[in-house]
Write a structure and sequence with these properties.
- The chain is mostly helical.
- The chain is built from twelve helices and five strands.
- α1 runs antiparallel to α2 and α2 crosses α4.
């Protein structure tokens, strides 16, 4: 491996705390660039803009659409290249980035799958399996939909991260950013039942052996809950997206939804003032379907 590439990956892992998926993608794409340059007797730090464009014109066979690299794949490659050369510049090892003028193709936006309110209610209220597993699965689905959490966020939770009285959960999101997120009475009921059944401390969601539930297992739980209710292709992100969609339909403003979802990296987020927890809680209780019922009228915001 090119020594500069190894240093870059080490930097991303240790200092930027990039995910294993990101590190694999960067290593693959920049490794492919190094292989492209090798017959030309060039190292990564010696590349020109022309050579970068020539490399990007080569199509990875596994990512072709109609004979050309998919826009998403091309964007990933460009992002890896830009990040690598920006890092070399920041290290003072290059005067300027040869990738600064690279352009990324536009990627058509796909509409994420979401459920209507009745479908979402059916999925979270009647998941698959029985007994101990059914209690866990219901609590997981209620929280994914009721709070709009990423599956990775939900699976990282400990019991102590919950405030069931105030109906709030402390979440560690992307970039190690912490946010406090509200959820509704149905999730409180499901979580109370589950916690009482499984012991009441440590990891909130556990697998068969007692360890923290895996993302693969959580995906299967949500998928099976969909199948159990006659719905195909239901996955954790569908519950998260349904939460955001139903909040918007219930009258929540986009800023509150961004705060709820933890979308702090969106450029539109920067245009708005900070939404404090009290306001977020009031908006949630007014807008989200699972925030209604079982509470006194004065508590509904």
């Amino acid at each position: 491996m090119d020594p500069d590439l190894q240093r870059f990956l080490d930097h991303r892992k240790v200092e930027r705390r990039s995910s294993p998926h990101t590190l694999r993608a960067y290593g693959h794409d920049l490794g492919s660039l190094a292989e492209f340059l090798a017959p030309r007797g060039r190292r990564l730090r010696e590349v020109s803009l022309k050579e970068l464009r020539a490399f990007l014109a080569t199509d990875p066979p596994q990512s072709r659409e109609g004979g050309r690299a998919a826009p998403a794949t091309m964007n990933r490659r460009v992002a890896a290249i830009r990040a690598f050369y920006a890092w070399l510049v920041a290290q003072g090892e290059l005067a300027g980035s040869p990738a600064a003028r690279l352009r990324s193709p536009k990627v058509p936006r796909k509409t994420p799958r979401f459920l209507d309110v009745d479908e979402a209610a059916a999925v979270v209220e009647a998941p698959a399996q029985a007994g101990w597993y059914a209690l866990r699965n219901k609590a997981l689905c209620e929280l994914l939909y009721g709070a709009g959490l990423r599956v990775s966020e939900a699976l990282a939770l400990d019991v102590d991260d919950l405030d069931l009285h105030e109906r709030l959960v402390r979440v560690m999101g992307k970039g190690k950013k912490v946010r406090v997120v509200p959820f509704g009475p149905p999730a409180v009921e499901a979580l109370n039942t589950w916690i009482a059944a499984m012991g009441g401390e440590g990891a909130l969601f556990r697998g068969r052996g007692g360890g923290r539930l895996s993302a693969r297992a959580a995906w299967q739980i949500v998928h099976d809950a969909g199948v159990n209710n006659g719905l195909a292709q239901v996955h954790p992100h569908a519950l998260r997206h349904s939460c955001a969609t139903h909040l918007l339909g219930g009258g929540a403003d986009l800023r509150a939804i961004q705060e709820q979802m933890g979308h702090s990296s969106l450029t539109t987020t920067q245009r708005y003032a900070h939404v404090d927890a009290a306001h977020l809680l009031a908006v949630y209780r007014k807008s989200h379907p699972r925030a209604r019922g079982g509470q006194e009228e004065g508590e509904l915001g």
